[in-house]
UniProtKB/TrEMBL annotation:
It comes from Desulfobulbus oligotrophicus. The keyword Membrane applies. The keyword Transmembrane applies. Keywords: Membrane, Transmembrane, Transmembrane helix. InterPro entries: Seleno_YedE (IPR026366), Sulf_transp_TsuA/YedE (IPR007272). This is YedE-related selenium metabolism membrane protein. It comes from the Bacteria.
Length: 362
């Protein structure tokens, strides 16, 4: 069997650096500052564009999300790793996706955005990353006690095509109903005319850049949650090399572009409530750990044919709608009116799921 260079130390470091360059490029060409690639933010924007929530400042059919999945799908097909599978506690994974999204929107970003915020000088990201590591750490405690969602099983090939087909559908909607300048709706699709949702890089750059990221991430197994889990459980630094390369490359490029502003206050699309930055990402990190991957990794696994990962992705999109319809999501002014209650509820759910799925060895 031919060795996968991308999965080695050098390969994952190079992949992380290239992904960072693409992400910073997306920011430079129009995506919101420190939001070149953010799975949680972009899935939230897609939910708004589809009318699942009516927060007018975060509605756009972000092509990056479909392209990430399709890039992974193409890589899996090219290298014989497209393996349709399902059946590992699918409904639980949907709920984990919901908890992960709620926590991420309290912090205002997924782990990738936390890294990009850090590379842009936003010190609130340090608090968020500390929460992420703490959440993954809690997950490792339950792993050691026997936590498992069980094995999935092979499925008919057609099952693996469902998520790629859904992503192609999103791209089709964007092309059939493109945004009209100054208009908040085009056909059946909602668009922001102000705020983060109105800021986006050109379609072809977003599509092409994210396809490359999806391809590289599938080959390298890039995963923020996996990096911290492996470090905490096994003292393995392999996946962490990709994270370090990502932050370093993004920071250097931001310096070149004059986009570094170090501090806590007045950071783009961020708040300074340290407690909820920490607890939001702790919630998300715990959910990522229990599900077996960060939101990016879940997209890439869905591209490989993993229907359970696809349900996690759909859970995140549904939760994004809940977060804005029920005032759970944060904004630059602070956490949402019901964000604290939502985090406490999600933590209780995660504790119950962790305990319920401990499997005793006979």
């Amino acid at each position: 069997m031919k060795k996968n260079w991308f999965a080695g130390g050098s390969g994952i470091a190079v992949s992380g650096a290239i992904m960072a360059v693409i992400a910073v490029g997306l920011q430079y060409f129009g995506n919101p500052a420190n939001m070149g690639l953010c799975v949680a933010c972009f899935e939230r924007d897609i939910a708004g564009a589809l009318g699942l929530h009516r927060a007018e400042v975060v509605q756009y059919l972000r092509p990056e999300i479909p392209a990430l999945l399709l890039g992974s799908f193409l890589a899996a097909l090219c290298f014989g790793e497209f393996k349709p599978r399902a059946g590992s506690a699918p409904l639980v994974r949907f709920i984990l996706g919901m908890c992960a999204m709620i926590g991420a929107l309290v912090f205002l970003g997924c782990p990738w955005r936390a890294l990009l915020r850090l590379a842009g000088g936003d010190l609130n990201a340090v608090v968020g990353l500390a929460g992420l590591i703490a959440g993954v750490g809690i997950g490792t405690v339950f792993f050691r006690r026997g936590y498992s969602l069980g094995r999935n099983t092979p499925q008919h090939t057609g099952a693996g095509y469902i998520m790629p087909a859904l992503m192609l559908g999103i791209l089709a909607l964007l092309l059939v109903f493109p945004q009209v300048a100054g208009e908040g709706k085009s056909g059946v699709v909602f668009y922001s005319v102000k705020g983060p949702g109105s800021m986006h890089a050109p379609f072809l750059y977003s599509l092409g850049g994210a396809l490359v990221v999806g391809f590289l991430a599938q080959r390298s197994r890039f995963c923020t949650m996996g990096a911290f889990r492996d470090l905490l459980m096994f003292r393995h630094f392999h996946l962490l090399l990709g994270i370090l390369a990502f932050v370093a490359a993004a920071f250097v490029l931001n310096l070149v572009l004059g986009k570094v502003s170090i501090g806590f206050a007045n950071q783009p699309v961020a708040h300074t409530n340290h407690l909820w930055n920490f607890l939001g990402m702790l919630t998300a990190g715990w959910a990522f750990a229990l599900a077996g991957g960060c939101p990016g990794r879940q997209i890439f696994m869905a591209g490989e044919g993993d229907a359970d990962a696809g349900l996690f992705v759909l859970g995140m999109i549904v939760a994004a709608a809940f977060a804005h319809n029920f005032e759970l999501a944060s904004s630059p002014t602070g956490i949402g009116a019901n964000g604290d209650v939502a985090v406490y509820f999600c933590l209780a759910v995660l504790l119950c799921l962790s305990l319920i799925h401990i499997r005793k060895v006979a």
